[in-house]
Design a protein that fits this description.
Elements lengths: L2 E6 L13 H18 L4 H8 L2 E11 L8 E11 L3 E10 L2 E13 L10 H7 L1
Antiparallel strand pairs: 1-3, 2-5, 3-4, 4-5
């Protein structure tokens, strides 16, 4: 299932030229992933407390295509591409009125309390599909 997250560009998100600072795109897609997981009914705090499992970014490929600017409204789309035992690959894009501004492939891994990769619980994998 795809996720959609809307973002408004504030002055604090931009550089002196009024262009969104590159690192803020990572913040936008992180927020979008959090909301997508919540939309799927996955409680990350409960997952950590009850099973000791958290998700961490293992790899990220990013393409900055067109700049976003101060006071624009953007949309972040999140879509799962691969779901493995311990790994999840997502495609995320930041859009402005139908134009792709930023594209990322994000690889997440499920980690146990000791920081080692662990299998995602089956009910979590089912919700992600």
């Amino acid at each position: 299932m795809k996720g959609r997250f809307d973002v408004h560009v504030y002055y604090e998100d931009t550089d002196l030229a009024g262009i969104v600072y590159y690192a803020n795109y990572l913040r936008y897609i992180e927020r979008a992933r959090t909301e997508w997981v919540r939309m799927l009914g996955i409680d990350q705090r409960a997952l950590k407390a009850e099973r000791g499992v958290v998700f961490a970014v293992r790899r990220l490929e990013a393409d900055y295509l067109v700049p976003a600017r101060f006071d624009e409204d953007l949309t972040v789309l999140t879509e799962p591409k691969e779901i493995g035992g311990a790994r999840l690959v997502l495609e995320q894009g930041v859009w402005r009125e139908g134009q792709l501004l930023f594209h990322a492939i994000v690889t997440l891994v499920a980690l146990g309390e000791a920081g080692q990769a662990v299998r995602m619980p089956a009910n979590i994998r089912r919700r992600l599909q």
